[in-house]
């Protein structure tokens, strides 16, 4: 048939059953329908999918969506099929017969939207296949995966420059929920999108209350968060390791909270069963590594908790962004401790990659630490990181109970000079625990056997308690005055910048944790 194409708004209403476009959706869709290239930055939950789905339906030919989320393709296709859109995917999980069926449908012109894993685009057979069908639009989802600077680089994405070279007349729309100015530039450059119009939505998620607490007893802290504020709510708890995922899930279940584990060590079957229970049942808490969540569309996730420090602000923003997609008040809570800093520095040092890579990872970590240690509004800092100016929000922990900043120069000097003395006088390095025992003058076995009670700094730090000292060490690490040594034991060494503190020419401002109770939420705005 050659009927005039349907208007985007009519498609929105007829096919998807929504009354109106949100935010910038209408202008993005109009631009792409008219044949323009677009680079779309929209936070998670902002409604990116419709920005390419509707152009795919309105423009003649098939819309081809490049997505790294192979595990979700089936769900996406099912959801589209349910509203009558002819969708299919091609990825490595299919056998030859299934692939062949999809290819025949595509060639017959029976597919509106085809999801494609990026690695398939490198195959000559895929390129040849796409040559034989009219393509209406190319969508590049999770476009930040092309950025080596970003936190989620996928080498296969580099091959996507082929799209423009091979099909210069087909409009392309690249979408991402996370991109600093630098990443944005890199996406535009690597995907040949320099001429594309950029649509940058606000990254603010005002209904999410951001909170970062010192990590004392993470499990007890998590339980208190769930029991006092989120009883019966769906939530996601992120842990760094598979072991802590399992341990945490077990502990929650033992407390009567319906929690399920999710990590790459579980079979595909168990993972997909747990994922669908989380999506379909009410009030399930998913305890997961970051392997979980990309592309998950569950509107009523009421809290996202991090029991370990995320590796980057981008990661943190993306993970916390899975809370409150329905716009209702939600909590993003992170417990962060000294051990996190030590562990992550060590992981960077011992991990793969060249010097430049490690340096980038170090910068990502520093930005994350700065967010943790800030004495000003968390949201302001977070949005500032993405290049967006804003006022103090009134709905984060530092706005609701402002931390004091205090002059910690003297304690910093005591701690740093202990490290220096151990290094110089004894040629020794120790972790935070021993350093603090020395400052507090504790006569432990380890102190005695090392004759640390003979050090000049033994017992000179009793003005602070053990927890406060841990806070000092943590902050000196994040301020780059202390460093984790490369010995693999997490011992601490002096950083070059510490010289100015020791000679008195530089003051050290520290953050004092306010006494905080669960009452924060009582004042919750929004
Ligand atoms: P993103 O990919 O940006 O994270 P999605 O495309 O998954 O977001 O959309 C998030 C949710 O918002 C989905 O449940 C989607 O159906 C819904 N949504 C998107 N656009 C609209 C709209 N114009 N009206 C109502 N709901 C919408
Ligand atoms: Zn704030």
TrEMBL record:
Molecular-function GO terms, alphabetical: 3'-5' DNA helicase activity; ATP binding; DNA binding; four-way junction helicase activity; hydrolase activity; metal ion binding
GO CC entries: bacterial nucleoid; cytoplasm; replisome
PROSITE patterns according to UniProt: HELICASE_ATP_BIND_1, HELICASE_CTER, HRDC
Reactions the enzyme catalyzes: Couples ATP hydrolysis with the unwinding of duplex DNA by translocating in the 3'-5' direction
Gene: recQ
InterPro entries: DEAD/DEAH_box_helicase_dom, DNA_helicase_ATP-dep_RecQ, DNA_helicase_ATP-dep_RecQ_bac, Helicase_ATP-bd, Helicase_C-like, HRDC-like_sf, HRDC_dom, HRDC_dom_sf
Sequence ranges assigned to domain Helicase C-terminal in this UniProt record: 218-369
Listed Gene3D superfamilies: HRDC domain, P-loop containing nucleotide triphosphate hydrolases, Winged helix-like DNA-binding domain superfamily/Winged helix DNA-binding domain
GO biological-process terms attached to the record: DNA recombination; DNA repair; DNA replication; SOS response
Identification of the protein by name: DNA helicase RecQ
Domain of life: Bacteria
Required cofactor(s): Zn(2+); Mg(2+)
Annotated EC: 5.6.2.4
Database matches in NCBIfam families: recQ (TIGR01389), recQ_fam (TIGR00614)
Organism from which the protein derives: Pseudolysinimonas yzui
Residues in Helicase ATP-binding domain copies: 29-197
């Amino acid at each position: 048939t050659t009927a005039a194409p349907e208007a985007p708004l009519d498609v929105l209403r007829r096919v998807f059953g929504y009354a109106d476009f949100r935010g910038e959706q209408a202008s993005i869709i109009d631009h792409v329908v008219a044949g323009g290239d677009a680079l779309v930055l929209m936070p998670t939950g902002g409604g990116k999918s419709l920005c390419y789905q509707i152009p795919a339906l309105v423009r003649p030919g098939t819309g081809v969506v490049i997505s790294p989320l192979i595990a979700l393709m089936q769900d996406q296709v099912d959801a589209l099929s349910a509203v009558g859109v002819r969708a299919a995917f091609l990825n490595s999980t299919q056998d030859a017969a299934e692939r062949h069926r999809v290819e025949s449908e595509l060639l017959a012109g029976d597919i509106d939207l085809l999801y494609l894993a990026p690695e398939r685009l490198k195959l000559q057979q895929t390129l040849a296949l796409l040559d034989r069908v009219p393509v209406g639009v190319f969508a590049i989802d999770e476009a930040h995966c092309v950025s080596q600077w970003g936190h989620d680089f996928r080498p296969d994405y580099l091959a996507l420059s082929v799209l423009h070279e091979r099909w210069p007349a087909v409009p392309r729309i690249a979408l991402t929920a996370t991109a600093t100015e630098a990443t944005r530039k890199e996406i535009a450059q690597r995907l040949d999108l320099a001429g594309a119009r950029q649509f940058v939505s606000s990254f603010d998620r005002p209904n999410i209350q951001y909170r970062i607490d010192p990590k004392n007893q993470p499990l007890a802290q998590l339980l208190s968060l769930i029991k006092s504020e989120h009883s019966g709510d769906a939530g996601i708890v992120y842990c760094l390791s598979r072991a802590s995922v399992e341990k945490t899930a077990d502990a929650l279940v033992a407390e009567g909270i319906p929690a399920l584990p999710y990590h790459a060590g579980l079979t595909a079957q168990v993972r997909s069963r747990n994922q669908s229970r989380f999506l379909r049942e009410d009030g399930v808490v998913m305890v997961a590594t970051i392997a979980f969540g990309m592309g998950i569309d569950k509107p009523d996730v009421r809290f996202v908790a991090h029991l370990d420090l995320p590796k980057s602000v981008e990661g943190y923003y993306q993970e916390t962004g899975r809370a409150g997609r329905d716009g209702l008040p939600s909590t993003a809570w992170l417990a962060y401790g000294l051990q996190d800093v030590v562990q992550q520095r060590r992981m960077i040092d011992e991990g793969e990659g060249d010097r430049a890579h490690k340096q980038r990872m170090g910068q990502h970590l520093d930005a994350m630490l700065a967010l943790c240690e800030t004495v000003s509004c968390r949201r302001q800092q977070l949005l500032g990181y993405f290049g967006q100016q804003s006022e103090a929000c009134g709905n984060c922990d530092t706005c609701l109970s402002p931390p004091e900043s205090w002059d910690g120069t003297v304690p910093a000097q005591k701690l740093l000079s202990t490290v220096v003395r151990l290094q110089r006088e004894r040629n020794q390095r120790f972790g935070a625990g021993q350093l603090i025992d020395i400052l507090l003058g504790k006569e432990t076995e380890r102190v005695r056997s090392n004759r640390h009670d003979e050090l000049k700094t033994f017992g000179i730090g009793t003005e602070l308690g053990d927890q406060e000292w841990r806070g000092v060490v943590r902050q000196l690490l994040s301020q780059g005055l202390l460093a984790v040594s490369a010995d693999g034991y997490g011992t601490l060494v002096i950083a070059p910048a510490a010289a100015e503190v020791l000679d008195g020419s530089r003051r050290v401002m520290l953050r004092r944790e306010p006494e905080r109770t669960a009452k924060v939420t009582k004042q919750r705005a929004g």
